[in-house]
Design goal:
mainly beta; HIV-inactivating Protein, Cyanovirin-n; 2 helices; 10 strands
């Protein structure tokens, strides 16, 4: 009896630890535009984490963030979606919170290792609102 009770506790504990973070409700009636349903859009000090407060399904402001390095890359000085780690080849990243436009000096060639010693670069810009939406209070790449 003790062993089966212990086994049940272990199994229950595993289920609790393994439960995923709840996904946002895609049927939520919140406007998905980050420009309309989010406020305080900022770029974290790391230069690649987008932070905001967005309306959730209950119309409450919810703090949220998204690591842009997981969805943005650099292709010879241009931001590109569906790639990774743009920040390794970028410097002076900034965000216009009114337009959700990210800009940075991006390497145009060479190695993308974070070193900028006399390597060519150019100003790159991208409008984050084109692919990032508010889904149930979460910044979400779509």
């Amino acid at each position: 009896m003790f062993i089966s009770t212990l086994a049940a506790i272990v199994l229950l504990g595993s289920a609790v630890l393994a439960s995923p973070i709840p996904s946002p409700d895609p049927n939520c009636s919140t406007d998905r535009s980050i420009l309309k349903s989010c406020k305080e859009l900022t770029l974290d000090q790391d230069g690649h984490t987008l932070k905001a407060s967005c309306l959730d399904c209950n119309q409450a402001w919810s703090p949220t963030s998204l690591d842009l390095d997981q969805v943005l890359g650099n292709d010879h000085g241009n931001f590109v979606w569906d790639q990774k780690s743009f920040s390794l080849s970028a410097r002076d990243s900034s965000l216009n919170s009114e337009t959700a436009e990210l800009s940075a000096n991006l390497k145009t060639g060479g190695s993308y290792d974070g070193e900028f010693e006399e390597e060519p670069e150019q100003k790159g810009t991208i409008v984050l609102a084109n692919r990032i939406q508010n889904v149930g209070g979460y910044l979400t790449f779509v």
